[in-house]
Amino acid sequence: xxxxxxxxxxxxxxxxxxxxxxxxxxxxxxxxxxxxxxxxxxxxxxxxxxxxxxxxxxxxxxxxxxxxxxxxxxxxxxxxxxxxxxxxxxxxxxxxxxxxxxxxxxxxxxxxxxxxxxxxxxxxxxxxxxxxxxxxxxxxxxxxxxxxxxxxxxxxxxxxxxxxxxxxxxxxxxxxxxxxxxxxxxxxxxxxxxxxxxxxxxxxxxxxxxxxxxxxxxxxxxxxxxxxxxxxxxxxxxxxxxxxxxxxxxxxxxxxxxxxxxxxxxxxxxxxxxxxxxxxxxxxxxxxxxxxxxxxxxxxxxxxxxxxxxxxxxxxx
Length: 317
Description:
The chain contains 11 helices and 14 strands. The protein is an alpha/beta fold. The chain folds into 2 domains: 117 residues, ornithine cyclodeaminase, domain 1; 177 residues, NAD(P)-binding Rossmann-like Domain (Rossmann fold), CATH 3.40.50.720. The strands form 2 sheets. The chain has an 8-stranded parallel β-sheet with strand order 9-8-7-10-11-14-12-13, with helices on both faces. Strands 1-6-5-4-3-2 form a 6-stranded mixed β-sheet. β7, α4 and β8 form a beta-alpha-beta unit. The protein is globular and about 55 Å long. The protein starts with a strand and ends in a 7-residue tail after the last helix.
C-alpha cells in the first residue's frame, strides 16, 4: 500500500491528464452507487456534511472517498472540504493506496467543468469569470484553459480582499487577471462563468447572460444551495454531470419543485456528451448551463491515474 500526500497527489495529477482520464471513465463507465449524505451538527458553527462516495470497475479497481464539508472553516482559515480517498484492488479487495482527498477532489472537480466546457462552451471562448475565492477558484482558470483559449480572467468574491489575494496568486499565470467589482457587468461580458461558492442564494441572474454564454455551476451540492436564479434556468439549455444532480443540487431541485424546470428539459449528462449521444452546444447564441455535484466515477478516475503514475508497474489489468 502507498500513501500520497497533497503535494505528491498534485505532482502526478496534472489537469490535461485528469480531463482525459475523466473523459475515458465517462465513456467506458463504471459502477457508481448514489453517495451517502450525513448531516453533522455542531455548536461552534454551521452544520457540516459527511459524504461517502464509492465506485468500482469490476475486477480492476474499487474505491471510496470519505469527505467532510464544513462551511464554517473559512473563518478558521481552513478549507471547507476535508477528505481522503482509499483505492482497493477490484479483484482481491486489498488496499492499494490512500490519497489526500482535498487535492484529488479539487482537481477532478475543475477537470469535470473543463470536460463539460469542451462540449458546451463556444470554441472561441476566451473570457472567464470565476465567482468565488476558495481552492477551486485558483484552479478553474487552468482547467478551462485546457479546452478553450482563455486569455482574460475576472474574479469576484464577496470579500474584495480575498478576491485580490487570489488575483495576486494568479498574476504569473500568463492570463490577464483582474478583480471584478461589479458582478453584473462581469457576467454580462464573460464567455464562461464558473461559480465555485457555498451560496444558498442565487448570485448569477439569468437576465445578465448574453447569448452564447456558458454557465458552469460547481459549488452547490445540497437542495438548499443555489448559485443561479430561475431566469438563468429559463434561458438556458440544461446539462448535468450525473443524474444525481437532479436530486442533490438546489440549482435544479428548486426550479423543478416550482415548475420552472421539468426533468424533460435536461438535455444530457456527461456520459451522454462523451459518448456522442447529445452534441452539446448547437449554436453560437445558445446559453448553456452545466450543473455538477461531483461524482464518484470522477474520483475513481483520478485515483487510478494517481496510483498508476505513482506505481507505473502496478496497473491492474
